[in-house]
């Protein structure tokens, strides 16, 4: 089963769903506790703490990084569980 990520805004409108196209995939880095994906020239990184709780999001466009805050409720969950699902899907 593929693993998907959806980002919603403060009005619960979906602004991003990933993956959408063939070949797009989520990657998890155990060392930095970051879930990342690339679309075009933009890299999205969801950073977590050592327990896997999401702490923030970075959007990197052509080398410029913008830090985004996560909404508390939708950010619930564990990046560690996502990493396990990604590994199981491979």
From TrEMBL:
Superkingdom as given in the UniProt entry: Bacteria
Protein's UniProt name: Uncharacterized protein
């Amino acid at each position: 089963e593929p693993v998907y990520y959806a980002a919603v805004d403060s009005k619960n409108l979906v602004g991003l769903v990933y993956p959408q196209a063939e070949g797009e995939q989520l990657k998890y880095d155990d060392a930095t506790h970051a879930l990342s994906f690339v679309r075009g020239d933009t890299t999205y990184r969801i950073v977590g703490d050592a327990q896997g709780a999401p702490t923030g999001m970075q959007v990197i466009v052509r080398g410029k990084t913008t830090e985004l805050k996560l909404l508390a409720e939708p950010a619930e969950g564990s990046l560690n569980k996502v990493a396990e699902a990604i590994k199981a899907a491979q």
